[in-house]
Every structure is written in C-alpha cells, then in structure tokens.
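S1.2 Input.
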Amino acid sequence: MASASDLRTIPLDRARRIALGAQGFADAKPTGAANVRHFRRAMDRMTILQVDSVNVICRSHFLPMFARLGSYDRDKLDHWLWQSRENFEYFNHVASLTSVEHQPNIRFRMHHPRWVKGLADFEREKPGYVESVLTEIDERGGLSVGDLDDPGGRTGPWWGYSKGKIALEYLYLTGQLMISNRDKNFKLVYDTPNEVLPIEIAQQPTPTPEDSFKALLMLGAKSHGIGTATDLADYFRLKMPQARPALKQLVADGELEMVQVEGWTEPAYLHPEAKTPRSISASTFLTPFDPVCWFRPRAERLFDFHYRIEIYVPEPKRVYGYYVLPFLHGDRLVGRADIKADRQAGMLLAKGVFGEAGADPDVVAPAMAKNLAEMAEWLGLDGVEVGKKGDLAGAVAEAVG
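S1.3 Output.
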C-alpha cells in the first residue's frame, strides 16, 4: 500500500464539493412537483434513507428528501418507500431503507450469532410460539403485533416487549420476516420476504460475507464520493476488522483510489465515478440523520462543524437546543437552528438560530428565513415564528417579516 507521501492530494474545498455532489446537492431541484423518478434519483445518490421515530418537525426520513428535492407529497414518498417493492427496511445503517437490489449483500447480517442465540433462548421459554407466529403470517398475510391472535402483554424480557413483539423482531432480524409497511403512527407491519421482495431478488444466491463487505464499501464510497476508511465503513455500519482488508483489496483491484485530503490525518478513498462540481448552490436545512452529517467526525473534517444532537441532553445543559438542524449554504455548513413544528398553533418555530464563525450574517440570515418559510409551507403550517435565542435570531426574524 502506498505511503502518504506517494498519494495525490485533494484540496479540502474540492473534497467538500465531491462529497456534496455525490449526495445529490449538485442536482437541480424539480421545477414542478417531485415524483417517483425524483425519489429514485435522490435515493440513488444517498443509497440509504435512515428511519427514526423523532417527529419534532416531521418524521425524520422526510427531511433528507426535502433538502434535495424541495416540496413534495409525503404520502407519495411513503407509498414508494414501503409499498413499491423497490426498497426494503433493515438495519442497513441502523434502521433504514435502501434499494432491494442491495438486499443480498445485507443477508450476512441476518445470520449474526446474537440473533440466532436470542431466538433459541426465546424458543426455550416459549416453545413453538415463534413458529406459530410465522405460520399465522403465512396464512393471513402481513400483520402488526396487535393483529396477532396471541400477542401477549407488555411484560417480556425486551424492554417490556410482549412475546408477540419479541417473536416478530427476531423473525425480522433473522430475515424470516420483513417490514412491509409503516402507517402514519409508525406502526410496523411484518410480512414474508416473498411478499416484500421481487422474486428475482429473493432467488439471488447469498454472496460471501467478504464479497458483501466489498460491495457495501463501494456503495458507501459512491454516496460519499470521497471518505476515510471509517467514513466508508460507517455507511453500512461495518466493523473495521471487516472493512480494512476489503478496502485494501478494492485499492489493489483498482476499484478505489487512495488519496490524501488536505488537512486530514488519515488517507481517503476516492470513488472512480466521483465528480467535482464547479460549485454547490444548495441552501437547505439538514436533519441530524442526513448522510452528510450523520457521522459527526466526518462533518468536522469536511466542514469544521462540531455537531451533537442534544435530544437526550438535560435542557439546562443544551448548548443549541432540543432538535437542531445544520444549515447548508453553498458548500459549507454555515449555521444551525433549533426547529419545531407547533401543529396546534399552526406555526414552524425556530426557537434558536445560530451562525458559524466566519459566516456572513447578511447572507446566512435571509437564506435561513427563506428556507424556514418554504419548510412551513411544505408542512402545511401558517408561518414561521423565530425565538430570541442565538446570534442570528434577530436578523432571521426580521427577514421572515
């Protein structure tokens, strides 16, 4: 493997443009209503769309699409994500969706000894119950835990889970069931793989774990454009002992190029299809679960942006607020805002608005105000209300009008 001195150096500003371009921020937003074609393009850029129950603004999986596409119909996105048979949900990068074409390379995760042992332990406690749940879904079709004939009460060993929930989760984790839908309340519906996956995917042979590691690292490299070993491994949450030999082989095979990024202490890997946009004209808020910033060390290296989600931090100890969204303007993260949808009052609240060091408030504040207004309209709210916290609060409030 080449030493650092032998590697070509990529300037940091170019690395940012490569990364943002790979994530779709160099693509033009739709001029009309976004449709399934636009959803596919954005998913192809991101590869993974993280799912989370946080609903402070809206369900978190809606926001990365909004950042890339602007206003769209959320019901149409949900229908495409869970009912088109083009995507599947699993622990790809924590709970997340990705294209069904990648499902064979995730199967190694379904054979994890932890799931197999857990299922065996549960079977000893409730002999025959798991098989009865699987048979019931085979016969009746997709079911939620509450639909089961005998779901049990919330007294099980998993965080108070019922025996029905435990059985469904283990069958899901081991690949015997899949999530076929989530309703508006995020209630899960489970069904058999044959009902969720296209037959040509279900019948594909399972790759070796080593081949899967390489395929998933290449997907991470494609969606990052450029990244360190830890960046690429984190995309599909691979362990470094799995990632290191796979990356070494990918470089040796000419699939990835090892480079040095200005200011980074670790070497980086450049995807062969990575493009360098001349400029990035994006201006948008990013959810904490967006691939651009979900791996916090990468956000610091790329943007000099220190970011921690403070939902679980006691309120007196929060620096910025409960649910803070980074603000992307051009190729930099130039600010952040603590945002909440007050549905009862019909207002989008920006409770705290902050600029990053060196960001021009005369540029950032109007851009933030414009984005807040667009987000409020997309959510069907009546307007924007700006609080008093943060150095940009006054300027953004004035721009909102």
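S1.4 Remarks. The chain has 16 helices and 14 strands.
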